[in-house]
Amino acid sequence: MFFKKNAEKESGITEKIRETFKDTPTLESDRLIYKRIVPENAQDMFDYSKCEEVTRYLLWTPHVSLTQTEKYIKLLQKKYDNGSFWDFGLTYKEDGRFIGTCGITSMDDDTRTIEIGYVLAPEYWGKELAPEAARTVMRYCFDTFGAEKICGKFMEGNNGSMRVMTKLGMTLEGIYRKSMYVKGEYKTIHVYEITKERFFEVNKF
How many Å apart are CA 165 and CA 185, to the nearest integer? Predict the structure, then answer.
C-alpha cells in the first residue's frame, strides 16, 4: 500500500500534521517522553543507527560515523521547521537516554489514513517499549488529526515488528510480494491496519 503525496492538494490530515510538527509537541507515557529530535541526541542516535541488526529491515543503511548522524539531525531541524518531518524522538525516563523514534511516515487525506513507523535501540528490545510508543502516537493521531485508520508496514522476515502491530490490535490488510526495491533487491511488504473504533476497543488507557 503506497499513499498519495500530492503537493497541490494539502488539506485535512496532511495540513494539520504539517502545522503541528513545525512546533513539535511533547507527549508522555508511562516510561517514555516524546519530543523533537535535537542535536543533543546525536551520540545516542548514532549508538543504535550504526547497528546492522537495527537497519536490517529498514530503508536506510547503518550510519558510519557520529558526524553522519550529526548532519542528519541538522537536516531534520529544517524538515521540522517546514513541516515535512513527523517523527518523535523517544527518551527513556529511567535513564534519560534517547532510545529511538516513533512517528508518521505518510498519510492520505481521501481515506483519512495515517501510516506510522518506529525504530528502537536494540538494548531496549523486549521491554514492551515499542508497543507503548506506537500506542501513544496512534492515540495522538486519532485524537488530534481526525484519522479514521492507521496502518503500518514491514519487510517480510521482520517478525518483531509484526508482533508489535499484533499487540496493538492491528490485523493483516495485505501482502505485497516483491513490491519495494531496497538495498539491491525487491522486498515483500506486509501491511497491517486498525480502525479508530477498533483501536480504542482493544487499547485501554
Answer: 25
Assigned C-alpha cell, 24: 513539535
User: Cα angle vertex 139, ends 137, 145, to 5°?
Assistant: 90
Query: Cell 507503548 sits at which residue?
Result: 132
Q: Show the CA angle centred on residue 39, arms to residues 38 and 42, nearest 5°.
A: 110
What's the pLDDT at 205?
A: 77
Residues in the chain with pLDDT values less than 50: 1-10
Per-residue exposure over 157-172, b if at least 16 CB sit within 10 Å of its own CB, e if not: ebeebbebbebbbbee
d(CA 119, CA 131): 11
CA–CA gap between residue 96 and residue 56 (Å, rounded)? 26
Residue with cell 500530492: 6
pLDDT in tens, 125-146: 999 999 999 999 999 999 999 9
Dist. CA 99–CA 4, nearest whole Å: 30
**Burial of 65 per CB tally in 10 Å (0-12, 13-18, 19+):** exposed
E strands along the chain, which residues?
27-28, 32-35, 87-92, 98-108, 113-120, 149-155, 171-182, 185-195
Global confidence as pTM: 0.92
